[in-house]
């Protein structure tokens, strides 16, 4: 098995987000692409990663295999990388994974392939009342602003757009709209307000590096779904349970 990524920073962003949710994870490496599913330590969010073979510069996978790893350790390995450096993941022996970072100073790391039990994911069939495509940077900054004053963010959607608002004594509010360019597209079946953890949102929004736009779907007192898509067809879907009460 051997796969290579043109620019390590995108893969690094995925591992950075993952490391904030779980201690260990496992990639399913298949002939048509790479997948990963995980539930966070507190069991209030889950992440699904799908990287089709077209996402990679080189993709030579003849049969299914799992790559289990410590998220913190893999992030340490990738922390040595710089923009535009190439990442290679290779295995000749199922027990060992070789990571190469090719740039001005090529580096090689040998990782033990860990056995990681697959998570038991719940069956989720959610009907969303709001579906919007947001400018990634605008949404990231809005959540970051609220996180400075509140642990909980209210997301409010109506015909005028979306408001991201603090919940608690301190007041902060950011408006996202088509007129400002922060909303690319929005579908609303009815006005909605729902609350979510700013800490969890801040942790996952490192994935806004993957794309200029982020797809957001939610409904009152239901999970918030964020979808980050790459230019080559890869996707990361994140679901976060609402803050109730």
From TrEMBL:
SUPFAM superfamilies: DNA clamp. InterPro entries: DNA_clamp_sf, Pr_cel_nuc_antig, Pr_cel_nuc_antig_C, Pr_cel_nuc_antig_CS, Pr_cel_nuc_antig_N. Pfam families: PCNA_C, PCNA_N. GO terms for biological process: leading strand elongation; regulation of DNA replication. Residues 126-242 form the Proliferating cell nuclear antigen PCNA C-terminal domain. Keywords: DNA replication, DNA-binding. Residues 9-98 form the Proliferating cell nuclear antigen PCNA N-terminal domain. It comes from the Archaea. The keyword Cytoplasm does not apply. One of its GO terms (molecular function) is DNA polymerase processivity factor activity. Homotrimer. The subunits circularize to form a toroid; DNA passes through its center. Replication factor C (RFC) is required to load the toroid on the DNA. Belongs to the PCNA family. PANTHER family: PROLIFERATING CELL NUCLEAR ANTIGEN. Sliding clamp subunit that acts as a moving platform for DNA processing. Responsible for tethering the catalytic subunit of DNA polymerase and other proteins to DNA during high-speed replication. NCBIfam families: pcna (TIGR00590), PRK01115.1-3 (NF002220). This is DNA polymerase sliding clamp. It comes from Acidianus brierleyi.
